[in-house]
């Protein structure tokens, strides 16, 4: 009988039917080896993967989002995939209602139909990616996600604390800690024994409150995470000019700003070639069309608001818009990367704080009483919890600064279109890199703090071992005991627990500790009262007001001797003194110290000489004093003071811009011109008599003169002479200025207002 043998399978066929050959990990490894066999294959694989991730995948997302779009009862087209996120721009428009206004073509224009279909897919993909990124950032920083898990986490933590923090466990842990105290005392390590006792007291004191509600310091509305977030939001709001920020409103504003800069404006550039929001009418039309969910209404709105270029762009889809859409998809992908990275950092920081809060339960319940690594474990968890709050502050401030920079970027170049989008994408890439560095720096600082505390505790443990070895070798000498006792006393003296036990007196064992405590308490109360009443703030405001007066002078006259003279004048006018002038001028940019000192010295001469040189009008006395200062030397500072005083006389003391020669008739003008040419006592006395009603006529003027006209002429004399004096001062014509000033001083001398003679008081040149 002949047996029939089954045909044998070849090696390749046998491997094909081997199930282990087709496991996903094995297949992936085989493809990886095949693609990495040569440099050309590796480059081709990376290029293909990049195209798939940047273009094919977003368009696929757009197709899914377009399939999920709906039209609600009001007629607004909404993408369900992102509509539930409720992201809105600064106009209050839901971003999920945005439309891409274009010509969808017809049977006669199949090209427009094809282009519009591709544009719609790109638009939906761009919206899904960009809105998701913005929502992630807002959702992470608003802590709405933390509210979902806070209740179960709090219940679990309370249950765990109740199970572990029992009297039996704490008694056993305290007994182990007391054993270490006794051991240190027997070995003569009194400082370590004292430190261990104080540590156990601190753990017991703070552990009672912590174990009652372990998660309260982390998950409560006023916990570490929320306070860290609020501090970051306050700093970010301060950068945006908000002095009294509300965290929720600031977060909503950040979300609105991101929606404007990353979705609304790029979409308008893509759709119309430029940002149509620059026109208020077009902004309103676009928002109304989007709210109605009609791309036809958006396009017709551009025509109604007068933006014909935008309307033409929307009616003529082209391949350039498809290319722009691909670039915006890349832009949205980078934004999504930034949003995922930032929100991930915030969530991880919160998770770290929650984790360390859970671990601290074991420390306060038992580990904190036991000397050694368990105490270090408790300290590390407490420090890491605070570091997590610090990370929350850093990430929130970073987001506020980053949103402010991008908003300023889009505002500074409102008409640059695609250039702004390219720059915004580049800035976002840089932002991801910088955010990574910020996270590393904050984590590094936290690790350094933990490492230092750990090294201190570890050093103490090493010292304990060394002390034990020394004790085994022989008993400590008297000097060593003295040093040990002094170290113990110093440790107790500097410990905060001892401070509370001694009536909150710092360093209670030090000399004059009570007097030092009273002085420090008085200083703190004064500082607190000053802050409560706003004294310090008001003082700083006054200082800033004085500095601003000097800055205004520098802005008008430059950093010149005249600018310095005006600055000193304005500083004193604002309530400052000559002692404040030098610092104010320095802050205003007057770097020449000699110029500052000369200006202050000249002003001091004018102020001190004025009352002694003329006992009549104060401003006239200052003008006379400034001319006498010129006798000390025609330095730039003295000349500048002279010109500044003339300016004050003309534009403040006798300022009346509307009063000119044309305000009088021919006879009055003739009388005034004759007086200016040759001032005489009878004329000025007659004018004053008519002004007071004791006379009715003036020489050279027919008929009676009303008192109002005479008073107007009397005022015009000083107004006209002060203008002439200012012109002579600006021209540095000192003889003319001296003569004009004499004419201004004569009426006061004639009428008895001043008893000094003008010819003696006013210098001649």
Automatic annotation (TrEMBL):
<feature type="transmembrane region" description="Helical">
    <location>
        <begin position="193"/>
        <end position="212"/>
    </location>
</feature>
<feature type="transmembrane region" description="Helical">
    <location>
        <begin position="417"/>
        <end position="435"/>
    </location>
</feature>
<feature type="transmembrane region" description="Helical">
    <location>
        <begin position="383"/>
        <end position="405"/>
    </location>
</feature>
<feature type="transmembrane region" description="Helical">
    <location>
        <begin position="353"/>
        <end position="371"/>
    </location>
</feature>
<feature type="transmembrane region" description="Helical">
    <location>
        <begin position="123"/>
        <end position="146"/>
    </location>
</feature>
<keyword id="KW-1133">Transmembrane helix</keyword>
<keyword id="KW-0472">Membrane</keyword>
<protein>
    <submittedName>
        <fullName>Uncharacterized protein</fullName>
    </submittedName>
</protein>
<keyword id="KW-0812">Transmembrane</keyword>
<feature type="transmembrane region" description="Helical">
    <location>
        <begin position="43"/>
        <end position="65"/>
    </location>
</feature>
<feature type="transmembrane region" description="Helical">
    <location>
        <begin position="167"/>
        <end position="187"/>
    </location>
</feature>
<feature type="transmembrane region" description="Helical">
    <location>
        <begin position="322"/>
        <end position="341"/>
    </location>
</feature>
